[in-house]
Specification:
single chain; alpha/beta; FAD/NAD(P)-binding domain; 2 domains; five-stranded parallel beta sheet; 11 helices; 23 strands; 28% helix; disordered N terminus; disordered C terminus
Amino acid sequence: MILDATQRAEHDCDVTVLVVGAGPAGLAAARALRANGVDYLQVERHAGVGGLWDIDNPGTPMYESAHFISSRTLSAFSGYPMSDDYPDYPSRRQVLAYLMGFAKHTDLLPNIRFNTSVRSIQLQDDASWSATFDDGSQQQYSAVICASGMLWEPLTPQYPGHFDGVIRHSVTYRNADDLRGKRVLVVGAGNSGCDIACDIGRVADQTYLSVRRGYWFIPKHVFGIPSDVFADSGPHLPVRLQQRLFAWLLRIINGDVTRLGLPKPDHRLFETHPILNTEILQRLQHGDVIAKPDIARLDGSQVVFADGTSVPIDVIITATGYRHTIPYAQGYVGDEQFPDELYLSAFSRQHHNLIVMGFIETNSAAFGLFDLSAQLVAGYLRAQRDDPAAAAAFDARIASDHPDLSGGIDFVHSPRHTGYVDSTALKKVYLKTLARTGWSLPATAQQVSAVA
């Protein structure tokens, strides 16, 4: 029986799975658990579903102009496509509406306890987990699924020298209204950094973009087709051939980006997280944004760069990423970045009933991977209850199996790419494992209509 949040609060039951977080990964986990008849309670510290996609949630990195960097075609949960009315790359509002529609249609809302935070979890002698909530109450659970997200703790670099202006992390950025007429430096040329620099470049007195290394800038459309759909529909070529072919194509489309002050890429295509933003190239061409190298030091109102040049700056916005932490599970999963003890980016190798959902850093759409991971997780937890032999066999796999999830790509060695996986490689392993175990989501759970 699946108990709703109110009923769960009235029962002292130690066979329930605790799902922490009602963002995309948490919702995928909840649907899979429900479809498999696994009793669970889901808690969410905010007032509604969506996680970081709800711009009103305190601490979210979301900004007003944000859009998906993967297409709606390839970004949906199984059996629940995004509306045909959505554009190729949905806005943050549309993604949030999609997640809300998914939660409502799959009847997940009654089992979510909102405005509830987990302060800590503690392993018990019987291998169950005791969760302590923000109100001080405690409850025992048979398993914990940590799906609280990985973009909540900003990573802000420290620079030598003194700065007279304002330094703020991009997590504080919502729009460029308060930056009109100012001299702004955005640090970091990831997708968020490029988006923010484009926003600010339209209104600031001058906008600069500090770029530490060279990147490949991938257009969102190739021949009028979303880039990921174009790549997915073509022949599946060997990685080295793909890298040469698409690098050649990008040079034709974008030209030589070094003419815009950007450094030449120091790696092959696909070896870093893809930057799906060519608007930044237009802003650079128009002079709305000026590319600068890494910061060497701060000197009062001046920022001095590695090439010896300096410019006066009023505001520095560091789009420098996040520490991938799970504060309430410290001591049980890694402290920073991606805990390498996770099997298939989900299963703890030390604790058979501790799962991490959504900590997948990859080069393509994430929702589908969350979905496949959730199906495997739910099947495994159901097997722990109903089929101990199958669960034990999977335990052995968790302990000994170390699949290559690189897809043949030599990802650059940087903190951002610690634990980074190729989405195609991970998907293949998920599908192969689901076929072997038979733990796929029941077909009836997938037969839902598109969001209105």
